[in-house]
Write a structure and sequence with these properties.
7-stranded parallel sheet, about 325 residues, Rossmann fold, binds NADP nicotinamide-adenine-dinucleotide phosphate, binds 2-keto-D-gluconic acid
């Protein structure tokens, strides 16, 4: 009996490919490059990155699109759902690494550890010459979480031992959270001095962290973004950091990756990471396994393990 055909359009974690090859007939190609016979055979997709409406429409018999990453903004899940195609993502398995990165970025930004290490490596530590005191301390800060989902909760759990006050903004109050809730991002920004953004890329979150929000955080304010670059107005951020309207920022994500604006690269009060929050070998392996296991479960038992809400689960 011929094996089920799964399309892998573009680069993906090598463990995904290795495991898929054990169970499926793998076709590594762009959806647009397939002849109609091959396109008709494809029933599953494993993708890391973008898979839009046109690609979905080009596969008449596709049932499941398994996307690498918890954020699935690259896949047109709404369009897939409207056609009865299930989309899955990789939630939960990366929570710890991403939350740890948020805390690391927060400390690096506030206490300037990367700059201090560069200062030492550059040979500046000499008798009588010490690295300048960091302008900011985490002690006594009021941290506002923009997003309190799976990862936001883990960030909050990690913040508690630091004895900072924690508040949050989401679209609706989370009854089981003991932190102060602010119904608007502006109200949260006015109340706190430190914001950690961990919301998805959606039409509603576009450039929501804008000049007004940054001004509300103020000259002593700190912004950490581990969500998506899409949610921050980078021009406004660079201007606020440069003028001192905002104290400092730590960013793992950017608007147009991998292009980081020169204006941000030039700023000493910005700590910049190359979108690496989930980037450890164990976590990426777990994400890869979930991509494959969703396909195996779907074609073996008719159930997806981690379907996204937009896509109706068939069967
Ligand atoms: P999640 O569990 O779905 O949580 C998303 C949170 O965002 C929820 O608290 C949601 O709360 C809030 N939210 C959504 N839209 C909002 C809006 N318009 N206004 C205010 N709050 C809004 O997702 P997650 O697993 O925590 O992941 C969050 C995001 O982190 C992912 O989508 C991805 O983009 C990003 N991420 C980045 C990395 C990285 O490497 N840097 C790694 C993993 C994830 P309500 O529903 O109550 O509004
Ligand atoms: C990954 C992420 O770096 O899960 C997400 O949403 O942003 C990260 O974990 C990315 O998805 C892998 O390309």
């Amino acid at each position: 009996m011929s094996r089920i055909a799964v399309l892998v359009p573009g680069k993906i974690h090598e463990r995904v490919l290795a495991r898929l090859k054990e169970c499926f007939d793998i076709i590594e190609a762009d959806a647009s490059a397939l002849d109609s016979e091959t396109a008709g055979r494809i029933r599953g997709v494993a993708v890391s990155g973008t898979f839009g409406a046109q690609a979905i429409d080009s596969l008449p018999n596709v049932e499941l699109i398994s996307s690498f990453g918890v954020g699935y903004d690259g896949v047109d899940a709404k369009h897939a759902g409207s056609k009865g195609v299930v989309v899955t993502n990789t939630p939960e398995v990366l929570n710890d690494d991403v939350a740890d990165t948020a805390i690391g970025l927060l400390l690096n930004t506030i206490r300037e550890f990367p700059r201090a290490e560069s200062w030492l490596r550059d040979g500046n530590w000499k008798p009588g010459q010490n690295y300048p005191l960091s302008r900011f301390s985490l002690k006594g800060r009021h941290v506002g979480l923009y997003g309190l989902g799976r990862i936001g909760r883990e960030i909050a759990n990690r913040l508690e031992p630091f004895k900072v006050k924690i508040s949050y903004h989401t679209r609706s109050r989370h009854a089981d959270a003991s932190y102060d809730y602010y119904p608007t991002l502006k109200a949260l920004a006015e109340a706190v001095d430190t914001m950690i953004a961990i919301v998805p890329k959606t039409p509603q979150t576009h450039k929501t962290v804008n000049a007004e929000i940054l001004a509300a955080l103020g000259p002593g304010g700190v912004l950490i973004n581990v969500g998506r670059g899409w949610i921050v107005d980078e021009d406004a951020l660079a201007a606020a950091l440069s003028s001192g309207a905002l104290g400092a920022a730590g960013l793992d994500v950017f608007y147009d990756e991998p292009n980081v604006p020169e204006a941000l690269l030039a700023l000493p009060n910005a700590v910049l990471l190359p979108h690496m929050a989930s980037g450890s070998v164990p976590t990426r392996n777990a994400m890869a396994d979930l991509v494959v296991d969703n396909l195996i479960e779907w074609f073996g038992n008719g159930k997806a393990l981690t379907p996204v809400p937009e896509a109706p689960v068939k069967g």
